[in-house]
């Protein structure tokens, strides 16, 4: 970022509106940080981009851990431009890229891990991506429709289409769908790119918080109650065994309040001994927020200046 722009943004603009961001925090959600540039990973944050963004947060924002946020009892405890960092899903780059950068800058972070990925090397969407990337077939049939997958552009369109179709299926339907897809594509899942038990322990030992994100990443709102309880409980138990400590925080898969989870799931978390549940609905955290539907925010800008500007604006924005 140019020096003048940075001086204006943090010396003039952010100061003028800082009172509006007092007593509240912005919790950022990240997923993957990588330079792989794979066909289906174009939304990923690059490594240098992530480092630049973290440097800027360190310099101009008040970055705290989610434990610190949850311990704040009165608004005054949250200074202007308070930020917390969270990373969902549990890909390998949490260990090899994100943790070293946070560690170097002494920034706290929380990692919400989908435990099936530890056992299988990836999640349901990775299995779909893998089938489409590896296949030599020119087309597949999905729900009676022939979908062309003979080149990269068509594969990308097919991938987006299949993700939308699969996301809101129940877990057993999703598994059946993926098995059929692999059969048609004549492929097997081999793209292992997930955290291992040792890597999770290393992240925890670096002082980061480990949280749960279910076992198989279902949309809780479409599953039966017992499936939800099993999914949430299993991920908590697996992570407690790995880290040898209590897992207190949870992030809802997909995470939109009302659409992907509801009050029923918030009660499940309470009963299972969690202290918080993080959504993906945009908003701020304040000491009086519902601790089982905590809003987060994801600025999408690749440019670090735009990212910072959006973050300052978000910190001051009113949410109904
Ligand atoms: Zn997720």
Characterization of the model:
The strands form three sheets. Strands 1, 2, 3, 4 and 7 form a five-stranded parallel β-sheet that branches. By secondary structure, this protein is of the alpha/beta class. The mean pLDDT is 92. The radius of gyration is 20 Å and the shape is globular. It has two domains: 3-120 and 194-316, Glycoside hydrolase/deacetylase (TIM Barrel); 124-185. It has helices at residues 3-17, 47-60, 66-71, 93-105, 116-120, 124-134, 152-167, 171-185, 197-205, 225-243, 263-271, 304-316, and strands at 25-30, 62-63, 82-89, 110-113, 139-142, 145-148, 209-212, 249-251, 276-282, 294-296. Strand 2 (62-63), helix 3 (66-71) and strand 3 (82-89) form a beta-alpha-beta unit.
Helix content: 40-55%
Bound molecules: zinc ion
> In CATH terms, what is the fold-level topology of the largest domain?
TIM Barrel
Overall 3D geometry? globular
Q: Please report the total strand number as a whole number.
A: 10
Tell me the CATH superfamily of the largest domain.
Answer: Glycoside hydrolase/deacetylase
The number of helical segments is: 12
Helix/strand/pairing class, anyone? alpha/beta
Largest sheet: 5 strands, parallel
Order of helices and strands: HEHEHEHEHHEEHHHEHEHEEH
Q: Give the uncertain stretches in residue-range form.
A: none
**Global Rg:** 20 Å
InterPro entries: Glyco_hydro/deAcase_b/a-brl, NODB_dom, Polysacch_Deacetylase
Protein name: Polysaccharide deacetylase
Subcellular location: Secreted
Main location: secreted
């Amino acid at each position: 970022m140019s020096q003048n722009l940075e001086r204006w943004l943090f010396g003039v603009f952010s100061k003028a509106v800082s009172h509006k961001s007092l007593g509240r925090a912005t919790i950022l959600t990240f997923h993957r940080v990588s330079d792989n540039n794979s066909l289906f990973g174009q939304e990923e944050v690059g490594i240098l981009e992530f480092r630049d963004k973290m440097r800027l947060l360190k310099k101009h924002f008040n970055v705290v851990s989610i434990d610190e946020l949850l311990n704040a009892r009165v608004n005054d405890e949250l200074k202007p431009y308070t930020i917390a960092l969270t990373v969902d899903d549990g890909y390998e780059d949490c260990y090899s890229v994100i943790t070293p950068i946070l560690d170097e800058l002494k920034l706290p972070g929380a990692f919400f891990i989908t435990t099936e990925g530890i056992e299988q090397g990836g999640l349901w969407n990775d299995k779909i991506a893998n089938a489409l990337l590896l296949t030599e077939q020119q087309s597949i049939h999905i729900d009676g429709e022939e979908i062309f997958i003979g080149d990269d552009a068509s594969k990308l369109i097919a991938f987006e289409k299949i993700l939308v179709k699969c996301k809101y299926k129940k877990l057993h339907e999703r598994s059946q769908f993926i098995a059929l897809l692999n059969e048609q594509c004549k492929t097997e899942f081999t793209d292992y790119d997930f955290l291992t038990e040792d890597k999770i322990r290393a992240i925890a030992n670096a002082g980061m918080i480990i949280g749960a994100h279910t076992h198989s990443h279902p949309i809780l709102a479409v599953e039966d109650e017992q499936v939800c309880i099993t999914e949430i409980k299993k991920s908590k138990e697996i992570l407690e065994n790995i880290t040898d400590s209590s897992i207190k925080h949870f992030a809802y898969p997909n995470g939109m309040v009302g659409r992907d989870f509801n009050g029923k799931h918030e009660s499940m978390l309470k009963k299972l001994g969690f202290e918080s549940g993080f959504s993906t609905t945009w908003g701020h955290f304040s000491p009086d927020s519902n601790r089982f539907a905590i809003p987060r925010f994801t600025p999408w800008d690749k440019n670090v200046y735009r990212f910072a500007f959006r973050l300052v604006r978000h910190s001051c924005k009113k949410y109904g």
